[in-house]
Amino acid sequence: MTNIETIDADWMRAHPLPEPGDEGKHGRGQVLVVGGGAELAGAAMLAGVAALRAGAGKLQVAVAREAVAPLSVALPEARILALQGDQADTAAGLVMEHAARCDALLIGPGMMDDGAGLAAALLALETRDPVVVDAGALVAVPAARRQPNLVLTPNAGEMARLLDMDKGAVDADPLAAGRQAARRFEALVVMKGASTFVVSPQGRAGRYAGGGPGLGVSGSGDVLGGLITGLLARGATPFQAAAWGVYLHGEAGARLAANLGKLGFLAREIADQVPPILSSF
């Protein structure tokens, strides 16, 4: 498939999200976010809030044990799980025990790398639920078992490491890199950049060209990962969830740029813009 779909408001109207129904929070799905170390626990919080802003009904967040208490206060909407950072198999077992009761899993916010082996341990386990892999967890993907409903969200540098190629080559043709990764890892790929591409393993591709430079700020990618995971938990397909997540993230950035300035808004402010954008459809 060579056609590239334009991800815009018309695309959203043509591909509406599943209706939540009357089952309350349980009918909108449950998300589990697996974050990195204590020093970057805020990244998991950004992702978790974004998942809820995207309409997910319930949230669990797994972080380093020393971050549990402050995160429980900062994010009272979530159940916070404690991870033993130096015991990957034990931590993975805890995560998968709780993931069995969830509808979508996000691995990676706040992970600088997978030095503790947690992402690798998780991706070695079989699950049928959607799994989104971001940030430092992406290093575990090449050696991982192939999972159904796997979504990868790399930037150009992360994609270069995934494909063992020069970052300049990724920047020169991000769509080609996205297609290569989608085929190699049998995953839905969100190739992040000034224009973001959504690519399926079967070759379907979409392009979103909005958003603006203000979205290039620390924590922005964590918000995008959370939005996509929240939409997956609601029952969207991987391509639909990725396209909607990219659109909501970009349009939220455009709104903040118009109201606050082209640069200088914070990642924590992005998700707050999402509910009114969703309500416009």
TrEMBL record:
<dbReference type="InterPro" id="IPR000631">
    <property type="entry name" value="CARKD"/>
</dbReference>
<feature type="binding site">
    <location>
        <begin position="192"/>
        <end position="196"/>
    </location>
    <ligand>
        <name>AMP</name>
    </ligand>
</feature>
<comment type="function">
    <text>Catalyzes the dehydration of the S-form of NAD(P)HX at the expense of ADP, which is converted to AMP. Together with NAD(P)HX epimerase, which catalyzes the epimerization of the S- and R-forms, the enzyme allows the repair of both epimers of NAD(P)HX, a damaged form of NAD(P)H that is a result of enzymatic or heat-dependent hydration.</text>
</comment>
<dbReference type="InterPro" id="IPR029056">
    <property type="entry name" value="Ribokinase-like"/>
</dbReference>
<comment type="similarity">
    <text>Belongs to the NnrD/CARKD family.</text>
</comment>
<keyword id="KW-0520">NAD</keyword>
<keyword id="KW-0067">ATP-binding</keyword>
<feature type="domain" description="YjeF C-terminal">
    <location>
        <begin position="8"/>
        <end position="281"/>
    </location>
</feature>
<feature type="binding site">
    <location>
        <position position="110"/>
    </location>
    <ligand>
        <name>(6S)-NADPHX</name>
    </ligand>
</feature>
<protein>
    <recommendedName>
        <fullName>ADP-dependent (S)-NAD(P)H-hydrate dehydratase</fullName>
        <ecNumber>4.2.1.136</ecNumber>
    </recommendedName>
</protein>
<comment type="subunit">
    <text>Homotetramer.</text>
</comment>
<keyword id="KW-0456">Lyase</keyword>
<feature type="binding site">
    <location>
        <position position="222"/>
    </location>
    <ligand>
        <name>(6S)-NADPHX</name>
    </ligand>
</feature>
<feature type="binding site">
    <location>
        <position position="221"/>
    </location>
    <ligand>
        <name>AMP</name>
    </ligand>
</feature>
<feature type="binding site">
    <location>
        <position position="43"/>
    </location>
    <ligand>
        <name>(6S)-NADPHX</name>
    </ligand>
</feature>
<keyword id="KW-0521">NADP</keyword>
<keyword id="KW-0547">Nucleotide-binding</keyword>
<dbReference type="Pfam" id="PF01256">
    <property type="entry name" value="Carb_kinase"/>
</dbReference>
